[in-house]
Structures are given as structure tokens and as C-alpha cells.
Design a protein that fits this description.
The complex is a heterodimer. Chain A is an alpha/beta fold. Chain A contains 13 helices and 15 strands. In chain A, the strands form 3 sheets. In chain A, strands 5, 6, 7, 8, 9, 10, 11, 14 and 15 form a 9-stranded mixed β-sheet that branches. Chain A is globular. The chains are: A alpha/beta, B alpha+beta. The interface between A and B is medium-sized, with 29 and 32 residues.
Chain lengths: 325, 255
Amino acid sequence: MTDTKYSEKILELAERYNYSPFMIKQIMINFPDEHLVVINAFNRQPRETIRVNTLKTTPEKLKELLGKKGFRLKPTQFDYAFHVDSSQTRIGLGNTHEYLQGFYYIQSLASMVPVHLLYPEPGDNILDMCAAPGSKTTQIGQFLNQEGIIIAVDNKESRIKSLSSNVKRMGINNCIIFPYDSSQLRPFLKSTFIPDKILLDAPCTGSGIIRVDPTLKKSKNDLNINRMVRIQKKLLKTAIEILKPGGLLMYSTCSFHYQENEGVIADALTNNRNIEIIEPNEDFGHPGFDNINNKIFGIELLKTRRVYPNRDDLDAFFYCLLKKK
Amino acid sequence: MDRNGRKDFKGSTRPKSKNIIKKSNYPPKNKTKSYQKRTIMRETKFVTLNSTNIKMIKDYFITIAPNLYDLFAQSNNYVLYQFEGRARDIFLVPTSMSKMVKKLSKDLPLMHAGIHLGYVRPKRTHSGYVRAFFLSYEGGRFIYEFIINKNPELLKDIQSLQLNAKGERSFLYGKEIIFEDVISNTSKLIKKKIIFVLNQKNNYIGIALLLVKQAGKKKPEEPGQKKWDVHSRSQNFNVSLMNLIDAGYYLRTGG
């Protein structure tokens, strides 16, 4: 395929589906055999999903309570999460009394996966490096069952408010929150807090959540990706330094660009001999790329996981579980 | 300063004498990193509670139930922390986390740790403003659960009321409680003592306060009525249940 021909096709698709040519090109690179199906899948409305706060109620009780209000709850692959059909009611999911009492959190299924794969256990010390607005922090809190410590950090002070509010609403008592640049944390935590597990849900271009925010079809470009990659590499470097030997680190993004995903991990593997990728025990998602767009990342990268909007009916996320030797 | 017999007024464009302009170095024009860090630290330093605030909280707990503070202190599970600076939020930090919080707060601008119990702010009284402790929604929930789950013998000392579905809806919108919506007995409620508000399923949804205000017009005395007739005098007052804080604040504050 020549460059000119490729460009024509891109321009045509961009016009037809209301995308920027750049994004179409990126979709074609990252989903080579299924780009049209992916573009169509990105146009579908995402299903509403909730995560039950098992610190306050049980899935059965919540199903009964919301059922009385006209919500139909359908099971998912996680026993603490439900798909919600709210077509039979006029009440918004974020306006119920159960929501205010912290019985559940509105969260997409794909965004529950990183914590699920990291599997925090009671007593663990966990660092959430990019925590706001708190969906994954509160999920960690739920797994820890008030035992152990969570340190939740985000560099945007404006978003700390919503993080703090969600932690309070969900009744998490073992969480410390502060605004700070996570890539600068090492000197402060070195002697005080050595995390057993780290969640790095890295800031990204967000291209995987086009279903939620259709403005992303046009708003991102090459510069955004490069900027994010720089930040992600910096954060991952710090995370590896801080992590306890033998500890686990979950790196995830809501972006489908290989540069932000496999590219960052491959770079970390090259620069740090003391980490390895752990293949998740659970049969979830699809393997990451070992090579793409004339770039070879290595067979190790097949242990990472991707979810697709067309195959899994989820937002396009990337997950990689790392272990420090 | 006079100029042609006219005094300078505020906003005058006349250039001031160079001798008058004082050059201050604080705050520095080019804010260095260390300066910025220093200001953040000053604003949000997280320290253990001082004795004045401990006494304030103790007094507040006593109004809820006389033995509450002692039982709470005996449990020895939490340490009280506060912000040192403008914001005076009070936090209950589990003892297992306390040491770490203390260490981290030396270098990092902690915003939250453990449970947000409440805050200290000026309260208007007849004699002016005094510093007082106010319970937060989470603080109320913590105390209510502490009593229900660990110290049920204190149930007789606390005030609580149960709302019907209409009352719960209205209360969660931040409105005052109407007596018609209360399905529990309200005759024994007293003022100046917080009331735990529960919904029909006995879930904690907020805190309220009995408010007694003088009615606009004094009711005319009936012939032969005695001045110490408390019942008839009480008709000169409006009694209401003020919403102090409810679960709806999560939505109203944009959390």
C-alpha cells in the first residue's frame, strides 16, 4: 500500500466517520485487520456498569434495592459488578439514595480490571500514583477491607477534591491523600512507605474511551502522544524505584496507541533488568503487541493484555502487570 | 500630600515620589520552588490535635452522650489529627497509620488521612464569635456506627429520628425536616444536642438539630393565664428541625 493511496483512504474514512485523519491513521495502525469494526464499535453507546461497595452492602442486597427503583442489574464477569439497564426508570444512577450512601460506584468494567489483576489483599501497602477521581482507589479500599494502607496521589489539586469526596462516600478509612507529582515521590517515601503493590493508571491521551467522550475523535495529535509518553516513562521509572522487591506493579492506560503502552513497557524492560512481566492468571483480554508498525518489542510483551471495543464490548484499555525481582 | 492646594485622592494618577514607594521583597517576584513548597507546607501541615481542640471535641462528644469520649479514648484505635493553618479540618487516623502520617506530613502536603471527623470554625453566639467544633457527615456516621456496633448501651443517651420516604427525599436535598415526615417519637427531643437522622431502613443519612425560635407575634395572653404556664408560653415559639448535614452534600459539592 503506497502512502498516497493510504492517505486517500484515511481522508475518506475520516470524513465519513467524523474523525481527524490522524486518529483514523492511528486506528489503522493499532487495529490493522479490524479497523472498520473498531470504528463502528467506537460509535456504540457504552453500557452502564456499577461496582458494588462490599464494605457497605452485598451484591444481592443492592440488586434488590435498585430493582425496586426500576433498575435491571445483569451479572458481569466480576461478582461485585453489574451491568445496569436503566431504561425502565427516570432516576439517574448517580442520584439514588444508595449512591449517596456509598453502596456502589459508577465505573466502567474495563477500568475495574487493573485493580482486579493487581489483587490487593488485606494488610498490603498500596500506592495509587494517579489516583483522582478515585474509582480505582476506592476499589483497592474494598479489596483491602480497611486493613493495610493506601496512599493516593495526584498532581492536580483540583481533582483531589473529588478523590477525597469519593473516598469519604465509599467509607474507606485507611487512605492517605495528597496532591503531588508522583514522579518526584521517591525521596519522601524512601524511608517511610515501601509499597507492596503499586497501581499506575498513567495519564494518557484517552483514545480508548472514545465511546464515552466522542470529542477525542478529533482532539488528539502526535504531540499529545509524545507528551504523554514522556510523562508515562517518568512515572513508570519512579514506580519501579519505589516498589518493594518482589512487589507487583500494575501499569494501565485507557489508550490504544502502542507508543503509550507496549512502547513504554519495552523501554522500561530495557532500562531496568530487575523487572519482569507477569502474565495474569485470569483469562482476560487479548495479548499485547510483540511487534507493530515496523517496531519490534519482543515476545515478552505478549504477556501484557489489551481489551477491544469490538471483541469485548469494553473501552480500549491496556494492562501490564510487572514484578520487581 | 497637597498639590496646588488640592489633596490627592484615592486613585490619583499623579506619579508618586520615588522615596515613598517601598520595595518589599516578600513575597518574592520570582517565586522559587523552595518558596512555593514552603507556602504549601504552611497551609496544609498535618499535626496531632492540640489540647484546646481536644477539649473542644471532648465537650462536643459529651453533648452527644456523656460517656462517649471516654469510651472512644479507651478504644485506642484512632489518633486525632488536624491541619495547622487556615483550614482546621479534624481527622481520625487509625493508630496503625498514625506514625506514617506523622512522618509523611513533615515533607508532603497531606490533604486527607483516615476519617474526616469534622472541622473547627468560628461560631456566632450572643457574645460574638467563638471557635467551635462542627461534626462532618462522615464524623456523624462514624460516631453513630461506633455506638450501634460497639457501644449499644449509649443508645439511650443519643437522640435519633426516623424519616419516611418523603422526608428522606426532602432531607437529602438539604431541606429542613418537617415534623409530619418523622415516623419516630419526637416529643423527647431537646435542643442544643445533635440528632442522628435515619431513613426507613435505619440507615444513617445525616444529622439535624432542634431549633427553637421566637414566633413573630407574641400570642395574646388569655384571661387568667399564669406567666409561668410553660405549655402556653411555648406556643410563642416556632420549633423546627434544622438540617446540619446530609448525604446529599456529596452531590451538591460536586464530589
